[in-house]
From TrEMBL:
GO terms for cellular component: plasma membrane. NCBIfam families: DnaA_homol_Hda. Residues 155-219 form the Hda lid domain. It comes from Sphaerotilus montanus. InterPro entries: Hda (IPR017788), Hda_lid (IPR055199), P-loop_NTPase (IPR027417). This is DnaA family protein. Gene3D superfamilies: 1.10.8.60, P-loop containing nucleotide triphosphate hydrolases. It comes from the Bacteria. GO terms for biological process: DNA replication initiation; negative regulation of DNA-templated DNA replication initiation.
Length: 227
């Protein structure tokens, strides 16, 4: 019988200081805007998958909550209708490029209520505001503040980040295991970090060290990816 590991141990830490800036030339300006969001200047981050939008939005949530502030965060996983929290001091809208009609309506309503209440707004999507396939009034509001493009990290930077997280987890990550991780599916950093986390849990469950055969065995057993 395979051991099922308890939900202890390190979890991915989504903070500003764990973000990999990569080739983002405007990183200092982006970080300043994230650290001190302005109620009068919405912030919109855009870039392809793996560029770190969700990481930075979640880091903003973590920072606000560390100060004892309530936040509201809505994305594709949030069912409608959305509920506005009058006690919240930060509004975050993720996946803006993929909102259906209902979510576009809710996002516009959240945007208006937050603006009236003087609550800072941080949003993210894969496309720049001008190209967003959303209603005009929402597109206009997402574009009226600060807009920054995020650039995904290079393969070398991704490798360095995976090795750093593996060290944090106590996993000896060989070159062969790392190459297999990079070659499995899309080069999305969130996907790769999740895969590394599953590998860590799989090694605990099987009581075996992290090796290339173990990784291949895990990938061949999709039913066990949720352990």
């Amino acid at each position: 019988m395979r051991q099922v590991p308890l939900a202890f141990g390190p979890e991915p830490v989504l903070r500003f200081d764990t973000f990999l800036p990569g080739g983002n030339a405007q990183w200092e300006q982006v970080l300043m805007a994230l650290l001190s969001p302005s109620p009068s200047m919405p912030l919109y981050l855009w870039g392809p998958p793996g560029s770190g939008k969700t990481h930075l939005l979640q880091a903003a949530v973590s920072q606000a909550q560390s100060f004892g502030l309530r936040t509201m965060k809505f994305d594709l996983t949030t069912s409608t209708p959305w509920e506005y929290d009058e006690d919240a001091r930060l509004l975050l809208l993720d996946d803006c490029d993929r909102y259906d009609a209902d979510r576009q309506h809710e996002a516009f309503r959240m945007f208006i209520e937050a603006t009236i209440a003087g609550v800072p707004i941080i949003a993210g999507g894969r496309l720049p505001p001008v190209d967003l396939p959303v209603r005009d009034d929402l597109r206009t509001r997402l574009a009226w503040g600060l807009v920054y493009r995020l650039v995904p990290p290079t393969d070398e930077q991704v490798c360095a980040l995976l090795r750093r997280d593996a060290t944090r987890r106590g996993i000896p990550l060989s070159d062969e295991v790392l190459a297999c991780l990079l070659g499995h599916g899309e080069r999305d950093l969130t996907h790769l970090m999740d895969l590394l986390g599953r590998l860590d849990r799989y090694a605990l469950a099987t009581k075996r060290p992290v090796t290339l055969p173990l990784l291949r065995q895990m990938l061949a057993e999709p039913d066990l990816h949720t352990i």
